[in-house]
Specification:
Number of helices of chain A: 6
Order of helices and strands of chain A: HEEEEHHEEEEHHEEH
Number of strands of chain A: 10
Structural class of chain B: alpha/beta
Strand order of the largest sheet of chain A: 8-1-2-9-10
Number of strands of chain B: 8
Strand content of chain A: 15-25%
Distance between the termini of chain A: 76 Å
Largest sheet of chain B: 8 strands, mixed
GO molecular function (chain B): proteasome binding
Strand order of the largest sheet of chain B: 1-3-4-5-2-6-8-7
Number of helices of chain B: 7
Organism (chain B): Salvelinus namaycush (Lake trout)
Radius of gyration of chain B: 23 Å
Radius of gyration of chain A: 20 Å
Largest sheet of chain A: 5 strands, antiparallel
Oligomer: heterodimer
Structural class of chain A: alpha+beta
Distance between the termini of chain B: 71 Å
GO cellular component, one term (chain B): endoplasmic reticulum
Protein name (chain B): Proteasome assembly chaperone 1
Helix content of chain A: 25-40%
Family (chain B): Belongs to the PSMG1 family.
Shape of chain B: globular
Largest interface: A-B, 31 and 33 residues
Strand content of chain B: 15-25%
Chain lengths: ~250, ~270
């Protein structure tokens, strides 16, 4: 009894599934991990970077993209699909500035991206975008924001989140470690993002790319040296913690 | 593009090429596609004796004179009730696969829970050249070719003949005449050109077509000149239904030839 419910993705299966959307979510699950953290005066995006061959030139990261001066996004999934979404979002950001004479709010551009994704789940002949995105930035009033979208076109605001291959592990780490104290300073927020990625990234700092936006400043990509320094700090802190926990052998 | 009324329309030019030098990213896309493909691979697991026979055979093929495939819960139910109901059948293998609708047990054991969608192989103890396959799990379109190649790849082509029993909703049956309620469920048959068996029911009329696993199997048999006959049962009941299962009874005529000495072969009740 195999009537086809995924040929035209506009069709629901009898048990309420949209199989094309589920296929797209599979692609996201296989993409490299990305993490987003909302701090007090900073928002941080980190992505897992594949190892670069010894003699290969270090490439600038392609997975973290500015959508406007005050908004940027990272994605997990098919890069080819991401390019389309990013281009449309960038055009919309400028179009909004010209029409309304204000920069977009993070929620607005997230909603625009989510609506675009949803449209592709309800159009004949098109397949959904195989990406989930983490969108960070500051609104005009200075509020930091972090949103996540997925192939079905839903979006939610988060304090911290992860997408991609080991998203579950990273999210569990964040649930345990994201506290008001842990993001008290900008540096703390950045370190939390690195710590979260270190949980799942092989061979440490060289496989992490990090970007930050501070209030009233534009996107800044951290250099690998800065990341290495932070990783070393983190490892030192870990050792100190471990030392403290060791039972004192005094009488 | 700004319009007269102040709205901004997005216009895309296909003349503009994105700079395509991010090979790394394309590699990742390829890797994602590859991993998804691997996940969708079809695996056949045979029991140790059969695995041993395959190794010993030299050509990695089993001797098989008759392969009976049941696709769908009613076809499978028919075989369970009328053929596999004796002790003389051994479960010898299963096909495991993953797709969005068959999240597939990664369980390696052959004994799957009753009622769970699966694809199981049984062999007759006294006549080990007779294989029965009950397929109740959904096999995605991209997996059908793999399934057929892998299953038939284990069987000797010479002397093989295939019978397929398949369920189909009567809503998919196309006919210029009105179908009276009492006519449903009913059987239609389709054969490969190599098949010389007598028709036990009318042939499937045009423009009706087969899809899914039955179509893949019959196509394979046609291409490789294996005699195959298919009985498609059109029914108005989606769930397992005894009346639908009984509709397959004419097939017993052929099956009882294979499984001589079946103590519980029911008396045929011609419709």
């Amino acid at each position: 009894m195999a009537a086809r419910y995924d040929r035209a993705i506009t069709v629901f299966s009898p048990d309420g599934h949209l199989f094309q959307v589920e296929y797209a979510q599979e692609a996201v699950k296989k993409g490299s991990t990305a993490v987003g953290i909302r701090g007090k005066d900073i928002v941080v995006l980190g992505v897992e970077k594949k190892s670069v061959a010894k003699l290969q030139e270090e490439r600038t990261v392609r997975k973290i993209c500015a959508l406007d001066d005050h908004v940027c996004m990272a994605f997990a999934g098919l890069t080819a699909d991401a390019r389309i979404v990013i281009n449309r979002a960038r055009v919309e950001c400028q179009s909004h500035r010209l029409t309304v004479e204000d920069p977009v709010t993070v929620e607005y551009i997230t909603r625009h991206i989510a609506t675009l994704k949803q449209r592709y789940t309800q159009s004949n002949g098109r397949r959904p975008f195989g990406i989930s995105a983490l969108i960070v930035g500051f609104d005009c009033d200075g509020t930091p924001r972090l949103y996540q979208t997925d192939p079905s076109g839903t979006y939610h605001a988060w304090k911290a989140n992860a997408i991609g291959r080991s998203a579950k592990t990273v999210r569990e780490f964040l649930e345990k470690n994201y506290t008001e104290e842990s993001i008290a300073t900008d540096n703390d927020a950045i370190k939390l993002a690195i710590k979260a990625l270190l949980e799942v990234v092989q061979s440490g700092g060289k496989n992490i790319e990090l970007a930050v936006i501070r209030r009233n400043q534009s996107l800044k990509l951290l250099e690998s040296k800065e990341i290495e320094t932070l990783v070393t700090e983190i490892e030192k802190e870990k050792e100190e913690e471990a030392e403290k926990k060791k039972p004192k052998k005094s009488t | 593009m700004a319009t007269f009324f102040g709205e901004v329309l997005s216009v895309y030019s296909r003349a503009v090429e994105e700079d395509d030098d991010d090979l790394d990213d394309e590699n990742e896309d390829e890797q994602i596609h590859r991993e998804i493909e691997e996940k969708r691979e079809v695996h056949i697991a045979w029991c140790p004796e059969v695995a041993q026979s395959l190794e010993d055979s030299g050509s990695n093929k089993l001797q098989c004179s008759d392969l009976i495939i049941a696709v769908g819960t009613n076809a499978a139910g028919f075989l369970s009730a009328y053929v596999l109901n004796t002790e003389s059948w051994d479960a010898v293998g299963h096909v495991s696969l993953w797709n969005e609708r068959s999240r597939g047990s990664s369980r390696q054991s052959i004994a799957l829970l009753p009622g769970e969608p699966a694809c199981l192989f049984y062999r007759h103890r006294d006549n080990p050249a007779v294989l029965v396959c009950q397929s109740t799990c959904y096999i995605a379109e991209d997996q059908l070719f793999q399934w057929t190649e892998k299953v038939f790849g284990c069987l000797q082509k010479r002397g093989l003949s295939v019978m397929v029993l398949s369920d189909s909703p009567v809503a998919e049956y196309k006919t210029p005449d009105y179908l009276y309620g009492s006519a449903v469920p009913f059987l239609r048959s389709l054969k490969s050109s190599a098949s010389e068996s007598q028709a036990l029911c009318p042939a499937l009329e045009q423009p009706n077509i087969l899809t899914g696993l039955p179509a893949a199997v019959l196509s394979h048999c046609q291409v490789h000149q294996i005699p195959a006959v298919l009985y498609q049962c059109y029914t108005d009941v989606i769930s397992p239904d005894s009346i639908t299962m009984e509709t397959y009874k004419p097939a017993l005529l052929c099956l009882s030839k294979l499984v001589k000495g079946q103590p519980c072969c029911p008396v045929l009740n011609p419709r």
